[in-house]
## 1
Amino acid sequence: MPPKRVLNPQSIFDQASVEEAFEELKIRPQHLHSLYSNLILRSATDYDEIVDFPKKAKDYLSQNYVLSTSKVIHKKVSKSGDTIKLVVRLQDGLEVESVIMFYEPLSLKPAPENDEASEGETKPKLVADGTSRRATLCISSQVGCQMACTFCATGTMGIQGNLTAAEIVEQLMHARKEADIRNVVFMGMGEPLNNYKNVTQAVKLMIDSRYFGLKPSRVTVSTVGVIPYILKLATDLPKVSLALSLHAPNQEIREQLVPSARSYRLDKLMGAIDTYQEKTGNKVFIEYVLLSGVNDLPEHIDELGELLRDRDVTVNLIPWNPIYSPEIEFSAPGAESTEYFKNTLKNKYNIRCTVRQEKGQDVSGACGQLVLETQAQRGANADCGTADIEDLMSPGAREVSPAPKCNIQ
Ligand code: SF4
């Protein structure tokens, strides 16, 4: 179990708590709607900006809640301008990362003379001009992760805590100041399904058409395979997209890469995917990080092809990249073998397959990497860590362009 975290004061985006308080104070539900629509759609920063908002509600909220419990302490735009990483400090000092990936290159403009650098950040020469550009946000659900996947930097951190639903939503609020977020992928730090209650609560607010209004299929929950919650997700949020971080064609290799596979065996996991698809009708995105000599050999392609051939899936291949954590030793596959893997799955097994386009390398836009890098190097040479772990977002969550890369499960 992750260490328990208690926030005080709470975030206004802790919707369940605010709702409960309004009921106790006998404040009519319409004011709850008014509160969130003003905060989210009109970017209100003061309760006085809300028309006809009861004084009783203002007073109570002012005393017990804050508009944000977290803040962005480090922001970096990639050299190509298509990725922004945000390091977000939580109320208790823990840090998580979010990555914004633009569909089209971001235009950069010179930073204003009076633009102050945030804490721990060197003042940028260029700043992004992206608030009107459509983008995907890769979001974190936990601080660290207990799943300990052997190729993942976050996995080396252990679990430090679950994010509250409000902290998850606040990542979206921070990102909306940088870009027009159209897709959200839970592929940052953490295993979302190990923080099920808070993740689903946050997702419900994100897809609520009265507020953020994200299309459910454009919100992707990525899991390394927590079977009970895959099945629960099919009932609770059937229109939200699911990505499975498979990474291996058989039980033996999967156990080497994903230790939780010992509890959630491959045959049972694929059975859960079948049940999920029967209930939801959704295609499932399969994430597969290619590790040279480990899971990318011709026999592995055949095993994977047999495993997936009659299932409605799209496979996203993620060629391994060096990561910042020196203790993680894997080799990247060559471009030719990656191409061979993809073409064989497509042509021999008729499986839709893409190779992940990488984004954010120079901002270390990968699972767990941002925080690892900045804690170690902030103020030194923030450009040196290239990191990738698993990757990214599902094509189903994309709107226009090739899939950007963030990282992931
Ligand atoms: S790959 Fe995902 S599930 Fe595995 S350790 Fe990293 S964050 Fe956790």
## 2
Amino acid sequence: MTDNPVVAPDPHPTVVPGPTPGLDGAGSSPTVDSGSSFAAGPGPTADPGSGAGPGATPGVPARIPTGDRNDEIQIYGLRKSFGQVEVLKGIDLTVHRGEVVCVIGPSGSGKSTLLRCVNVLEQPTAGRIFILNQEITHRDADVDAIRTLMGMVFQQFNLFPHLTALQNCTVAQTNVLKKPAAEAKEIALSNLAKVGLADRADAYPAQLSGGQQQRVAIARALAMDPELMLFDEPTSALDPELVGDVLGVMRQLAQEGMTMMVVTHEMAFAREVADRVIFMDDGQIVEQGAPDEVIGHPTHDRTRAFLRRVLDPTHIVAGQADPFDAAPPPSPHHPRFPSAD
Ligand SMILES: Nc1ncnc2c1ncn2[C@@H]1O[C@H](COP(=O)(O)OP(=O)(O)OP(=O)(O)O)[C@@H](O)[C@H]1O
Ligand SMILES: [Mg+2]
């Protein structure tokens, strides 16, 4: 659980422990700042967008962080274990300003854990993460301050039930950003209008549909004026007829140039809106590229099997082996499977 009202209440109440210095480095790092909480190093999934110089290890930038203002999220050698189980196995990824990156993959592949590590709702076991070139995994990082750069939208909305839509959109502005009440209200109303809910400002979450609640959650995140937005399956809990409105708001945000990292099983949305699609499996980035490449012409068997299952769940014939039958059963946190969408 976090005290930060920007992201609270948290659906997975994992306590974020203090920094754990020097765990399990994944390799040598070209340039390492002093005071980093974690060892950095290239994982097995080098990001082609990271811009290695001549003679450098492919996929590893000459400098960490790159210092490039356009590199809004930089992830190096990210690993995360729960107990003995390693669920992120060396993620390297850079998300650029204005880029929409959709993360797809089977249940339990580590998509949510990746997003949750980005804003340190989970403490990484190893690796380094920079948000606008500020290291959020640094032992001295002002995590709450860096988190204000990111809006996060969860599957389960996580609105405060005792507050109206408007109050949900003002509370963090006044408490965290210390905005005057009148200014916070004005910003909240303009963001509620942006998501099509200006007329429901005084409604409580229980009086709103799931789709409306999710749009309030998006308005609440936007009211903090974030540099980038993280979405974790924002439409998975919605009835099908409510999905479109939420995706419409996200599409509009993307068109306005918001940097977005979106975990989703909405393949049509990913195909239309994403600049890059990342397929994750078993804690690694297996494949990434333009949506037409990854979704339209996947090169890896696992990607193909996943897409076949998501795009056409009826392909599984009784008596025939399914590619995911061998996968570990989902945890109690994750009873869902992609075909639920
Ligand atoms: N707090 C936790 N404690 C222990 N194990 C966890 C915790 N959170 C996640 N896991 C495990 O880590 C693995 C990756 O989980 P994660 O939620 O990142 O998967 P996912 O790709 O988001 O799956 P889904 O599509 O079902 O949401 C799973 O095996 C999950 O059970
Ligand atoms: Mg998830």
